[in-house]
Write a structure and sequence with these properties.
Largest sheet: 8 strands, mixed
Order of helices and strands: HEHEEHEEHEHHHEHHE
Radius of gyration: 23 Å
Number of helices: 9
Strand order of the largest sheet: 1-7-8-6-5-2-3-4
Number of strands: 8
Strand content: 15-25%
Helix content: 25-40%
Shape: elongated
Protein backbone atom coordinates (compact mmCIF):
# COMPACT_ATOMS: atom_id res chain seq x y z
CA UNK A 1 0.00 0.00 0.00
CA UNK A 2 1.19 3.53 -0.57
CA UNK A 3 0.52 6.92 0.94
CA UNK A 4 1.73 9.83 -1.19
CA UNK A 5 3.46 12.65 0.72
CA UNK A 6 1.56 15.95 0.60
CA UNK A 7 2.52 18.21 -2.24
CA UNK A 8 0.83 21.02 -4.09
CA UNK A 9 2.75 22.10 -7.15
CA UNK A 10 1.13 24.46 -9.57
CA UNK A 11 -1.03 22.07 -11.61
CA UNK A 12 -0.39 24.15 -14.72
CA UNK A 13 3.41 24.06 -14.33
CA UNK A 14 5.40 21.95 -16.80
CA UNK A 15 6.06 18.38 -15.69
CA UNK A 16 8.61 16.56 -17.83
CA UNK A 17 7.58 13.22 -16.33
CA UNK A 18 3.86 13.60 -17.09
CA UNK A 19 2.15 10.56 -18.52
CA UNK A 20 0.48 11.18 -21.83
CA UNK A 21 0.56 10.26 -25.47
CA UNK A 22 4.03 10.93 -26.87
CA UNK A 23 5.48 11.60 -23.39
CA UNK A 24 7.98 8.85 -22.54
CA UNK A 25 8.87 8.40 -18.88
CA UNK A 26 12.26 9.32 -17.38
CA UNK A 27 15.13 7.28 -18.73
CA UNK A 28 13.17 5.70 -21.57
CA UNK A 29 14.83 4.95 -24.88
CA UNK A 30 13.15 4.95 -28.24
CA UNK A 31 12.19 1.46 -29.25
CA UNK A 32 13.10 -0.15 -25.89
CA UNK A 33 10.97 -2.29 -23.59
CA UNK A 34 10.80 0.67 -21.19
CA UNK A 35 9.34 2.81 -23.95
CA UNK A 36 6.66 0.20 -24.64
CA UNK A 37 5.87 -0.05 -20.91
CA UNK A 38 5.50 3.74 -20.65
CA UNK A 39 3.22 3.78 -23.67
CA UNK A 40 1.04 1.03 -22.22
CA UNK A 41 0.79 2.88 -18.90
CA UNK A 42 -0.12 6.09 -20.72
CA UNK A 43 -2.85 4.28 -22.63
CA UNK A 44 -4.27 2.84 -19.40
CA UNK A 45 -4.23 6.31 -17.84
CA UNK A 46 -6.16 7.81 -20.75
CA UNK A 47 -8.73 5.00 -20.73
CA UNK A 48 -9.31 5.10 -16.97
CA UNK A 49 -9.66 8.89 -16.89
CA UNK A 50 -12.00 8.95 -19.89
CA UNK A 51 -14.20 6.29 -18.31
CA UNK A 52 -14.35 8.13 -14.98
CA UNK A 53 -15.19 11.45 -16.65
CA UNK A 54 -18.09 9.85 -18.52
CA UNK A 55 -19.81 8.36 -15.47
CA UNK A 56 -22.79 10.39 -14.12
CA UNK A 57 -22.22 11.82 -10.64
CA UNK A 58 -25.81 12.58 -9.59
CA UNK A 59 -27.23 10.72 -6.61
CA UNK A 60 -25.33 8.92 -3.85
CA UNK A 61 -24.99 5.54 -5.51
CA UNK A 62 -21.36 4.46 -5.09
CA UNK A 63 -21.72 1.06 -6.77
CA UNK A 64 -19.43 2.15 -9.63
CA UNK A 65 -16.50 1.91 -7.21
CA UNK A 66 -16.92 -1.86 -6.77
CA UNK A 67 -13.54 -3.48 -7.35
CA UNK A 68 -11.88 -0.07 -7.80
CA UNK A 69 -12.03 1.48 -4.34
CA UNK A 70 -12.78 0.17 -0.87
CA UNK A 71 -13.82 1.88 2.34
CA UNK A 72 -14.23 0.39 5.77
CA UNK A 73 -17.72 0.90 7.16
CA UNK A 74 -18.48 2.30 10.61
CA UNK A 75 -19.24 -0.36 13.19
CA UNK A 76 -22.63 1.08 14.13
CA UNK A 77 -24.40 0.30 10.83
CA UNK A 78 -26.21 3.58 10.15
CA UNK A 79 -28.72 2.34 7.56
CA UNK A 80 -29.84 -0.53 9.78
CA UNK A 81 -30.12 1.67 12.86
CA UNK A 82 -32.00 4.35 10.91
CA UNK A 83 -34.45 1.76 9.60
CA UNK A 84 -35.13 0.54 13.13
CA UNK A 85 -36.02 4.06 14.26
CA UNK A 86 -38.17 4.75 11.19
CA UNK A 87 -40.21 1.65 11.91
CA UNK A 88 -41.16 3.10 15.30
CA UNK A 89 -41.80 6.69 14.17
CA UNK A 90 -45.10 8.40 13.34
CA UNK A 91 -43.72 11.32 11.30
CA UNK A 92 -40.13 11.44 10.03
CA UNK A 93 -37.92 13.80 8.03
CA UNK A 94 -34.76 12.88 6.11
CA UNK A 95 -32.67 16.01 5.53
CA UNK A 96 -30.43 16.17 2.42
CA UNK A 97 -31.58 12.78 1.17
CA UNK A 98 -29.47 12.85 -2.01
CA UNK A 99 -31.13 10.50 -4.46
CA UNK A 100 -32.97 8.77 -1.60
CA UNK A 101 -30.66 5.75 -1.82
CA UNK A 102 -30.04 5.31 1.92
CA UNK A 103 -33.59 6.17 2.99
CA UNK A 104 -34.96 3.63 0.50
CA UNK A 105 -33.05 0.86 2.29
CA UNK A 106 -35.54 1.07 5.17
CA UNK A 107 -38.16 -1.66 4.74
CA UNK A 108 -40.85 0.28 6.63
CA UNK A 109 -41.67 4.00 6.50
CA UNK A 110 -43.75 5.80 9.13
CA UNK A 111 -47.24 7.04 8.18
CA UNK A 112 -45.71 10.43 7.28
CA UNK A 113 -42.31 10.30 5.54
CA UNK A 114 -40.75 13.48 4.14
CA UNK A 115 -37.33 14.03 2.55
CA UNK A 116 -35.57 17.24 1.51
CA UNK A 117 -33.02 17.76 -1.24
CA UNK A 118 -31.62 20.78 -3.08
CA UNK A 119 -29.81 19.51 -6.20
CA UNK A 120 -32.26 19.08 -9.13
CA UNK A 121 -30.78 15.80 -10.48
CA UNK A 122 -31.01 14.30 -6.98
CA UNK A 123 -34.56 15.63 -6.52
CA UNK A 124 -35.63 13.75 -9.65
CA UNK A 125 -33.93 10.54 -8.52
CA UNK A 126 -35.32 10.75 -5.00
CA UNK A 127 -38.83 11.45 -6.28
CA UNK A 128 -38.76 8.44 -8.59
CA UNK A 129 -37.37 6.22 -5.85
CA UNK A 130 -39.45 7.39 -2.85
CA UNK A 131 -42.84 8.54 -4.20
CA UNK A 132 -44.01 5.00 -5.01
CA UNK A 133 -43.55 4.22 -1.32
CA UNK A 134 -45.65 7.19 -0.20
CA UNK A 135 -42.79 9.51 0.79
CA UNK A 136 -42.89 13.20 -0.11
CA UNK A 137 -39.76 14.86 -1.53
CA UNK A 138 -39.51 18.58 -0.84
CA UNK A 139 -37.10 20.86 -2.68
CA UNK A 140 -35.15 22.82 -0.08
CA UNK A 141 -31.99 24.89 -0.37
CA UNK A 142 -30.31 23.21 2.63
CA UNK A 143 -30.43 26.35 4.71
CA UNK A 144 -32.62 27.74 7.47
CA UNK A 145 -35.48 27.88 7.92
CA UNK A 146 -36.65 24.36 7.18
CA UNK A 147 -40.00 24.55 5.33
CA UNK A 148 -41.98 22.86 8.10
CA UNK A 149 -43.92 23.91 11.15
CA UNK A 150 -42.81 23.63 14.74
CA UNK A 151 -42.86 20.16 16.32
CA UNK A 152 -43.78 18.53 12.99
CA UNK A 153 -41.70 15.35 13.33
CA UNK A 154 -40.88 12.87 16.05
CA UNK A 155 -37.80 11.67 14.10
CA UNK A 156 -35.31 13.61 11.96
CA UNK A 157 -32.49 11.72 10.23
CA UNK A 158 -29.64 12.78 7.99
CA UNK A 159 -26.64 10.97 6.51
CA UNK A 160 -23.62 13.13 5.73
CA UNK A 161 -25.31 16.55 5.83
CA UNK A 162 -23.21 19.40 4.48
CA UNK A 163 -24.31 21.60 7.39
CA UNK A 164 -26.39 20.78 10.47
CA UNK A 165 -28.77 23.58 11.42
CA UNK A 166 -29.25 22.60 15.05
CA UNK A 167 -31.74 25.34 15.95
CA UNK A 168 -33.97 24.32 13.04
CA UNK A 169 -33.74 20.65 13.91
CA UNK A 170 -34.75 21.43 17.48
CA UNK A 171 -37.65 23.55 16.21
CA UNK A 172 -39.18 20.93 13.90
CA UNK A 173 -38.75 18.09 16.41
CA UNK A 174 -41.73 17.32 18.59
CA UNK A 175 -41.06 17.18 22.35
CA UNK A 176 -39.44 13.83 23.04
CA UNK A 177 -38.39 13.52 19.38
CA UNK A 178 -35.00 12.29 18.13
CA UNK A 179 -32.36 13.48 15.70
CA UNK A 180 -30.21 10.62 14.35
CA UNK A 181 -27.33 11.29 11.97
CA UNK A 182 -24.09 9.92 10.57
CA UNK A 183 -21.74 12.71 9.61
CA UNK A 184 -18.36 13.22 7.96
CA UNK A 185 -15.76 13.80 10.64
CA UNK A 186 -12.63 15.96 10.80
CA UNK A 187 -9.85 15.69 8.17
CA UNK A 188 -11.69 12.99 6.23
CA UNK A 189 -9.69 11.62 3.25
CA UNK A 190 -7.17 14.39 3.82
CA UNK A 191 -4.35 12.28 2.39
CA UNK A 192 -6.05 12.72 -0.99
CA UNK A 193 -7.03 16.34 -0.38
CA UNK A 194 -3.46 17.27 0.56
CA UNK A 195 -1.99 15.38 -2.38
CA UNK A 196 -3.75 17.88 -4.65
CA UNK A 197 -3.98 21.00 -2.46
CA UNK A 198 -0.94 20.71 -0.22
CA UNK A 199 -0.88 20.78 3.61
CA UNK A 200 -4.10 22.17 5.03
CA UNK A 201 -4.23 24.65 7.95
CA UNK A 202 -5.13 23.51 11.44
CA UNK A 203 -8.56 25.12 11.26
CA UNK A 204 -9.42 23.05 8.16
CA UNK A 205 -8.41 19.86 9.97
CA UNK A 206 -10.53 20.81 12.99
CA UNK A 207 -13.75 21.32 11.04
CA UNK A 208 -16.58 18.85 11.64
CA UNK A 209 -15.33 17.98 15.11
CA UNK A 210 -17.88 15.69 16.81
CA UNK A 211 -17.41 17.49 20.12
CA UNK A 212 -18.34 20.74 18.45
CA UNK A 213 -21.48 19.03 17.13
CA UNK A 214 -22.28 17.99 20.69
CA UNK A 215 -21.87 21.55 21.95
CA UNK A 216 -24.08 22.98 19.19
CA UNK A 217 -26.79 20.39 19.80
CA UNK A 218 -26.83 21.16 23.52
CA UNK A 219 -26.92 24.91 22.80
CA UNK A 220 -30.03 24.30 20.67
CA UNK A 221 -31.73 22.65 23.64
CA UNK A 222 -31.19 18.99 22.73
CA UNK A 223 -29.81 16.20 24.91
CA UNK A 224 -27.03 14.21 23.22
CA UNK A 225 -27.58 10.55 24.10
CA UNK A 226 -24.98 8.97 21.80
CA UNK A 227 -21.82 10.22 20.10
CA UNK A 228 -19.29 7.91 18.43
CA UNK A 229 -16.34 8.57 16.13
CA UNK A 230 -14.28 6.22 13.93
CA UNK A 231 -11.33 6.52 11.52
CA UNK A 232 -11.63 4.09 8.60
CA UNK A 233 -9.20 2.87 5.95
CA UNK A 234 -9.99 3.81 2.34
CA UNK A 235 -8.12 2.53 -0.73
CA UNK A 236 -8.19 3.77 -4.33
CA UNK A 237 -7.06 0.99 -6.67
CA UNK A 238 -6.84 2.97 -9.91
CA UNK A 239 -6.78 6.56 -11.06
CA UNK A 240 -10.30 6.29 -12.47
CA UNK A 241 -11.62 5.78 -8.94
CA UNK A 242 -9.80 8.93 -7.79
CA UNK A 243 -11.25 10.99 -10.66
CA UNK A 244 -14.79 9.75 -10.10
CA UNK A 245 -14.55 10.34 -6.34
CA UNK A 246 -13.37 13.93 -6.76
CA UNK A 247 -16.05 14.65 -9.37
CA UNK A 248 -18.75 13.23 -7.09
CA UNK A 249 -17.62 14.60 -3.73
CA UNK A 250 -16.97 18.08 -5.03
CA UNK A 251 -16.07 19.77 -1.74
CA UNK A 252 -12.92 17.67 -1.29
CA UNK A 253 -10.95 19.53 -3.99
CA UNK A 254 -13.34 22.35 -4.91
CA UNK A 255 -11.60 23.40 -8.13
CA UNK A 256 -11.02 19.86 -9.37
CA UNK A 257 -11.09 19.13 -13.08
CA UNK A 258 -9.05 16.56 -14.95
CA UNK A 259 -7.56 19.28 -17.13
CA UNK A 260 -6.42 21.36 -14.17
CA UNK A 261 -4.87 18.47 -12.23
CA UNK A 262 -3.82 16.26 -15.11
CA UNK A 263 -0.13 16.20 -14.21
CA UNK A 264 -0.78 15.31 -10.57
CA UNK A 265 -3.23 12.64 -11.67
CA UNK A 266 -0.65 11.21 -14.06
CA UNK A 267 1.97 11.04 -11.33
CA UNK A 268 -0.50 9.35 -8.98
CA UNK A 269 -1.45 6.87 -11.71
CA UNK A 270 2.19 5.84 -12.08
CA UNK A 271 2.62 5.51 -8.33
CA UNK A 272 -0.49 3.33 -7.93
CA UNK A 273 0.67 1.09 -10.76
CA UNK A 274 4.13 0.79 -9.22
CA UNK A 275 3.31 0.45 -5.52
CA UNK A 276 -0.36 -0.43 -5.09
CA UNK A 277 -3.49 1.35 -3.88
CA UNK A 278 -3.48 4.93 -2.65
CA UNK A 279 -4.41 4.75 1.04
CA UNK A 280 -6.45 7.43 2.81
CA UNK A 281 -8.58 7.50 5.94
CA UNK A 282 -12.24 8.41 6.14
CA UNK A 283 -13.62 9.79 9.41
CA UNK A 284 -17.23 9.40 10.48
CA UNK A 285 -19.23 10.18 13.59
CA UNK A 286 -22.66 9.14 14.75
CA UNK A 287 -24.76 11.51 16.82
CA UNK A 288 -28.16 10.96 18.40
CA UNK A 289 -29.89 13.79 20.23
CA UNK A 290 -33.31 14.10 21.79
CA UNK A 291 -35.59 17.01 22.45
CA UNK A 292 -36.72 17.02 26.08
CA UNK A 293 -40.35 15.97 26.58
CA UNK A 294 -42.91 18.66 27.22
CA UNK A 295 -43.44 19.50 30.84
CA UNK A 296 -46.79 18.64 32.30
CA UNK A 297 -48.75 21.77 33.18
CA UNK A 298 -48.61 22.58 36.83
CA UNK A 299 -51.83 22.45 38.80
CA UNK A 300 -52.89 25.09 41.26
CA UNK A 301 -52.55 23.98 44.88
Amino acid sequence: MTEVPPSAPDPSAPDPSAVGPGSPGPGSRGGTDADATDAASAARFEALVAEAEAVPVDGWDFSWFAGRATEERPSWGYARAMADRLARARAALDIQTGGGEVLAEAPVFPPLMVATESWPPNVARATARLHPRGAVVVVDEDGPPLPFGDAAFDLVVSRHPVTTWWDEIARVLAPGGTYFSQQVGPASVFELVEYFLGPQPAEARARRDPERARSEAVAAGLDVVDLRHERLRTEFHDIGAVVHFLRKVVWMVPDFTVARYRRRLAALHRLIEAEGPFVAHTTRFLIEARKPPARAPSTAG
